[in-house]
Design goal:
This protein has about 230 residues and is an alpha+beta fold. The protein folds into two domains: about 150 residues, Beta-Lactamase, CATH 3.30.450; about 50 residues, no CATH class. About 40% of the residues lie in helices and about 25% in strands. It is built from eight helices and ten strands. The strands form three sheets. It has a five-stranded antiparallel sheet with strand order 4-3-7-6-5, sandwiched between helices. The radius of gyration is 37 Å and the shape is rod-shaped.
């Protein structure tokens, strides 16, 4: 639907309707006016749609948008889009609205969050455009709103898994850097570019103090060896 070719009829404080100038309907639909057909399409669209006043007030909303944000028509049309936009997304949205009003752009797309009546957060893809009269004066905005909450959840899960993978990789790399290379034949430890005895490594690299002693196993082996030698 080309929003650039709309003629606005009877626009005052509220929107009565607007008619696509280029629309040609089949003869069998002649029982319905163009405005009737627009109203049907508007109300039953699969995505949320709204006509929004220049101050952000919802002038007209469809069923899909009401279901998305959890407000009935009568309540939602008493609010502004600022009221239900997540605070962190509001400035970016208002900046695009200002560009529309200034004539810098004809429409914009952005992903943003709405706060539902229950307080839940829903992600949407918003397409906003501005309708002007014959004198190019701004009249109202058209908002098309697609629910992308499920897609955003999948993306967030992917981002979380990627972050966990990167952390695990970093930890593995860190552990590898701390592994010791020990020569089983000479019982020497590699430290950097040189090899050193285990005692030297323990004292110089780990700062340990070594004392003379003998384990129980070593004592038993020593005694057995002494007894055998005497025989």
């Amino acid at each position: 639907m080309d929003i650039g070719t709309f003629q606005v009829d009877n626009f005052s404080d509220s929107v009565i309707g607007f008619v696509p100038l280029t629309t040609k309907m089949p003869a069998e639909n002649s029982l319905y006016s163009d405005n009737d057909l627009f109203q049907i399409a508007f109300q039953h669209a699969a995505i949320g749609m709204a006509l929004v006043g220049l101050k952000g007030e919802f002038l007209k909303v469809n069923l899909s948008l009401c279901e998305l944000v959890g407000y009935p028509d009568g309540e939602l049309t008493k609010l502004t889009f600022q009221d239900i936009t997540h605070p962190d997304d509001l400035d970016a949205d208002l900046a695009q609205v200002a560009r529309l009003m200034a004539g810098e752009i004809s429409s914009y797309n952005m992903e943003k969050r709405y706060l539902t009546k229950s307080g839940a957060i829903v992600w949407v893809l918003l397409t906003g455009s501005l309708v002007r009269n014959g004198a190019s004066e701004p009249l109202f905005f058209i908002a098309q709103i697609k629910d992308i909450t499920a897609r955003r959840k999948v993306e967030q899960e992917k981002e979380k898994l990627l972050a966990e993978l990167q952390q695990s990789t970093a930890e593995i790399t860190n552990l590898r850097s701390k592994l010791l290379t020990i020569c089983a034949w000479t019982k020497r430890v590699r430290c950097g570019d040189r090899w050193m005895s285990v005692d030297e490594f323990l004292v110089n690299e780990l700062g340990l103090c070594l004392t003379h002693g003998m384990s129980t196993e070593a004592e038993e082996e020593f005694i057995v060896g002494e007894v055998s030698a005497r025989k």
